């Protein structure tokens, strides 16, 4: 039951991440964010992004490990998903705009390969019943 709940939470977090990224990429709002903050801000914007990710990640972990309430733990998960969206946004914008790569299909291809590997490993664990830890 614990493993199933863990996988359900992981699936929800991944779906939220994919959904938010898709909205930002398809609406063009993500491109505007990257253009205004990172391309005009120079290396300080990138440094700020890294600092935000590290500090926010520590806060999200502290919230997720909190014994206060389940709501605080979910807020920590949501914060971490938002941080992942922010840090992956420039990467995905660059990947979809660069013609030397696969273009707009690159994130989809990466998602399919990741899903296949994750699905295969998950099936191996659930079907074999082995503890790989």
Question: Could you outline the blueprint of secondary structure elements for this entry?
Answer:
Blueprint: H1 2-27, H2 29-41, H3 43-64, H4 70-97, H5 106-128
Helix pairs in contact: 1-4, 2-3, 3-4
N-to-C span? 18 Å
Helix content: over 70%
Strand portion: under 5%
Biggest β-sheet description = none
Helix vs. strand class? mainly alpha
Average pLDDT for all residues:
84
Number of helices: 5
Q: Rg, please?
A: 17 Å
Number of DSSP strand runs: 0
Shape: globular
Q: List segments where confidence is low: pLDDT < 50 over at least 5 consecutive residues.
A: none
Quaternary structure state of the chains depicted: single chain
The run of helices and strands is HHHHH
Features:
mainly alpha; 0% strand; 5 helices; 133 residues
Summarize the structure.
The chain has helices at residues 2-27, 29-41, 43-64, 70-97, 106-128. With 133 residues, the chain is mainly α.
Please tell me about this protein's structure.
The chain is mostly helical and 133 residues long. Helices cover 84% and strands 0% of the residues. The protein has five helices and no strands. The protein has helices spanning 2-27, 29-41, 43-64, 70-97, 106-128. Helix 3 (43-64) packs antiparallel against helix 4. The relative contact order is 0.10. The model has no long low-confidence stretch (mean pLDDT 84).
């Amino acid at each position: 039951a614990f493993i199933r709940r863990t996988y359900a939470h992981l699936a929800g977090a991944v779906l939220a991440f994919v959904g938010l990224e898709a909205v930002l990429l398809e609406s063009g709002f993500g491109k505007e964010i990257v253009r205004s903050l990172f391309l005009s801000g120079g290396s300080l914007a990138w440094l700020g992004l890294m600092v935000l990710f590290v500090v926010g990640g520590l806060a999200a972990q502290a919230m997720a490990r909190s014994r206060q309430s389940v709501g605080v733990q979910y807020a920590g998960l949501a914060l971490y998903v938002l941080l992942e969206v922010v840090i992956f946004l420039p990467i995905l914008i660059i990947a979809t705009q660069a013609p030397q790569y696969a273009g707009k299909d690159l994130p989809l291809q990466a998602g399919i390969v990741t899903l296949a590997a994750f699905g295969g490993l998950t099936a191996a664990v659930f079907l074999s019943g082995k503890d790989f830890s």
